[in-house]
Amino acid sequence: MNALAPLLVALLGGIGLAVQPPTNAALGRSIGSVLLAALVSFAVGTLILIGVWLIADRTPLANLREARSWMFLGGAYGAFFVLAAAFAAPRLGLASMLTIMIATQLVAALVIDRFGLIGLPKAPISGVRLIGVALVLVGAVLVRRG
């Protein structure tokens, strides 16, 4: 695999995360329900993933039996993110909402890395990492005040 592929995918994912909340919020305003907009967003995403799985992967569904029950919570986290972002973006502004969410994600990521939670390898919390997260937290405050 090309070494740039993960970086490119991450960059495109970041763009997607930036445009998803205002798109879902616009849908919510249009149809009168943020909850229904989040449901439609997940339904469209599910259909796309089914298509890609059928074309490119086809891992047997029976493999799902090997997963522990807590491993299925990722969909719940994603659903809450989509709903929370569609609700918060028009009320806080997209930049404020995203910096708050990113800062929160980084703090949670430091804890997850530190203790090797959810099957990830342990990674120490270094001074440099703390400074990086602190800068993002300061950025979140500045963007919110700006």
From TrEMBL:
Residues passing through the membrane, by range: 34-56, 68-88, 94-112, 124-143
UniProt superkingdom: Bacteria
Keywords from the UniProt entry: Membrane, Transmembrane, Transmembrane helix
UniProt cross-references to InterPro entries, sorted A to Z: YdcZ
Record has Transmembrane as a keyword: yes
The protein, known as: DMT family transporter
PANTHER family noted in UniProt: INNER MEMBRANE PROTEIN YDCZ
